[in-house]
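Convert to structure. Protein one:
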Amino acid sequence: MKEITYSQSGDYLLPDLALPETEHIAIGKYGMLRRFYLKTYRRGLYAKLLLSGELYAHLAKVDLLAREMVQDIVGQTSRKISLPDKANQQMEWVGTTNELKHEAEEIALCQIVYK
């Protein structure tokens, strides 16, 4: 166990605490949603990840897993159903693909981000 050092500040001894140096990893939409969820509903886990320096790695991993899951679900579902012809029925095609993406995002949010 590490020994904590203290510095004198007036009449008080304050611990010399600092967060570990971590590489700042860019996170996407799902990583930001996960961070908000952890800060709001899972404060203990958020504090543990933050203080150990593993928060951004965790958020990047969740973001990657969620994006891959959405892409997989959209790809599998679009192969199973017949999409409208993109050249002749643009609005129907856009509506169908948006619906598929929103359904896939809902699944990914429930199974990965908010778990």
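Protein two, convert as well:
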Amino acid sequence: MSGIYIHIPFCRQACSYCDFFFVTRDRLIPAFVDELVDEIRHPSVPETGASSKNLSDIIRDYWFSTPVKTLYFGGGTPSRLDTASFERIVDAVRDRFDLSALQEFTIEVNPEDIDRDWLEGARQAGVTRLSVGIQSFRPELLEFMHRAHSSEQAHRALELIAEANFDSFSADLIYGSPGQTRRQLEEDLNQLFRHEPPHISAYSLTIEPKTRLGKQYELGRLQPAEGDDVHEQYRFITSALADRNIHRYEISNFAASGHRAVHNSSYWSHENYLGLGPSAHSFFLPGWQDEALRWQHPPDIHNWRQPAECEKLSGEKLAEERIMVGLRTTDGVEPGTLYDRYGYDLSEAQWECIGQFREKGLMEPGNTLRLTDSGFAVADSITLRLLS
């Protein structure tokens, strides 16, 4: 089975931290929808060399014949689409792909865009799960992040989502903003808990180049939060959510029982997915070989369907990716899976590192490579050492 990701790049305004591809010109939406619908009917596939024609046909045949497991609209802000445009895109997907076994249909939304009619339209189109960008309820933090919604709009959106009775929904929070205190974070969580979200994604604020915050940092006008403070906020979030039976299953994702994000989990286990729209990634691992293909559409609202460059990933590269991503999950990594799927054996030096991590209480004992709570706090450094 496979997944489909559709990138809707439109946003009301630019958030100060965001480095995803987006545009703020809603007047381009009609032409974009026309082009996207055409791409859904005739997906772009990569150029892979002399045998690309044959392989391109194989890839297309795979997508058109394999049941789709998950459908995800991300962005950007897909809720910038009106109901008619959204339904037109979904209808095109249903006409071209096999959705008979669809397990999850997610769309990202922002509080300022949605009302009862919009949510009902999403339900009628088949959406089963919403991911809503809250980030904070504090006015000063919303202003700092240049979010388009107010605290009141965030609460109202969550109330409407609860009333709409989707199968599941997730709320995004950002922590680790400069000057943010633990008390402020606790207040944000308590306000969010009023709405009983079954899934929460909590992301540490990252200052990326070419963003508003990145430019302020380069000019010396902004200093990131202290690392120890950020780690303490993360530990607090993990504990507070666990107290409400919302448990971490990936370093930034927490879910009540039965509410894990199926689409994102598929990424982490190297399941095939097709990306449609500007800047979207695709991944294809044929069953008859240990080499995978990954490609990305250009981040261009007008010319994203130009031939995409294709990256070939060896079994060793795939195994290292699986280790890197798997250690960020509570399921961890099975060494047997690394060998069976990628032909990858952990080296003697890697096993020695693993033994040291276990002695320090950073990795749990047993056959599975799985981090402890202390290990999650330094997951990146553990992965870097293990793969260096």
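Residues 315-388 form a domain with the Arc Repressor Mutant, subunit A fold (CATH 1.10.10.920). The chain has a mean pLDDT of 94.
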